[in-house]
Amino acid sequence: MVELLQQIINGAAIGGVYVLIALGLTTVFGILGIAHFAHGSVSMFGGYLTFFLVVQWGLPLLAAIACSLVVGFLLGMLIEILAYRPVRHASPINAFIVALGLTMMVEGLNLEFFGHEQVVIPTNLDRIFSLAGVTITELRLYVILSAAFLILAMTLFVEKTKTGQAIRAVAENRDAAILMGVNVSTIPLIVFAISTALGVCAGVMVGSLFAIAPGIGENLVVKGFAVLILGGLGSIPGAIVGGLVLGITEALAAGFLSSAYKDVIAFVVMILVLLFRPQGLMGKH
Questions:
Q1: Among 22-26, 49-53, 71-75, 170-174, whose mean pLDDT is lowest?
Q2: What is the predicted pLDDT for the residue at 285?
Q3: What would the 3-class secondary structure string for the chain be?
Q4: Integer Cα distance of 143 and 106 in angstroms
Q5: Taken in order 35, 247, 243, 191, is the CA torsion positive or negative?
Q6: Share of residues in the chain with pLDDT > 70 (%)
Q7: What is the pLDDT of residue 62?
Q8: Side-chain half-sphere of 218: how many Cα atoms within 13 Å?
């Protein structure tokens, strides 16, 4: 039982990262119908930038994260304006090709500016807490709490604010939203800005917990889309549930079987969900 609780706690941390990635992806997909494959590489850019600001410029960690979030927010707007807006009304295959090209471009920029070495964002959160035989590091605890705060903030933003309601209106019916006076031209800008900022937060968490290296972004975005399918495409509650399910499943597989099989077990769970509930756990028919 102690080992089970330990793996659930470990899975909750990485599950929180998956949720943040999936929230950004599901918001973009729900509004624009775009599979934003570059999201993982953009997240790694946020992690690399935070590492650079902390190590090279000597900024405190929180200040470096704040700067990275601002850059991520602006980068999201730039991606929407330069990459996706020109193909907004074109065939869906055009946006698909742009997404793939953007992935390679961002990954190349990461290599050019930050190099190919594996890096870890330094933190001073090295205390270990223990209760009834279950341990958790201070860093992992902060990651779980930060992810929970961001998930709650995103949920409240979408559900309670006028901008969030406008985003949901556009996702439900774009034409009706226009008739109701929603400025649909600004919604994609907001969506990409928020999505990229959430991705930057996920990149910082990955860089602090594990490491940042070339290729991790692609693996991260694959997990993000797995969460989307698991929870239900376009469903924010589904992204939350799916991310936690995937993270905890991976941790249980690594703890009780082998870390070599954790990805396999996670995708087997996803396939089983699709077999018996094709719309995902929280999706609609």
A1: 170-174
A2: 59
A3: CHHHHHHHHHHHHHHHHHHHHHHHHHHHHHHHCCCCCCHHHHHHHHHHHHHHHHHCCCCCHHHHHHHHHHHHHHHHHHHHHHHHHHHCCCCHHHHHHHHHHHHHHHHHHHHHHHCCCCECCCCCCCCEEEECCEEEEHHHHHHHHHHHHHHHHHHHHHHHCHHHHHHHHHHHCHHHHHHCCCCCCCHHHHHHHHHHHHHHHHHHHHHHHCCECCCHHHHHHHHHHHHHHHHCCCCHHHHHHHHHHHHHHHHHHHHHCCHHHHHHHHHHHHHHHHHHCCCCCCCCC
A4: 25
A5: negative
A6: 99
A7: 93
A8: 13
The model's pLDDT over 97-154, given as tens digits with 9 standing for 90+, comes to 998 899 999 999 999 888 888 999 998 888 888 877 788 889 999 999 999 999 999 9
220 CB-near residues (< 8 Å, 6+ apart):
17, 21, 40, 43, 44, 202, 206
151 or 171, which is more confident: 151
Sign of CA dihedral 32, 34, 40, 45: negative
Q: In whole angstroms, what is the distance from residue 103 CA to residue 116 CA?
A: 16
The phi and psi torsions of 104 (rounded to 5 degrees) equal: -65, -35
The more confident residue out of 254 and 145 is 145
pLDDT in tens, 190-239: 999 999 999 999 999 999 998 898 888 888 888 888 888 888 777 788 88
Residue 70: what residue type?
A: V
Dig out the tokens for 57 from the structure.
């410029």
CATH class of 2-276: mainly alpha
Structure-derived torsion over alpha carbons of residues 184, 188, 190, 195, reported in degrees to the nearest 10: 150
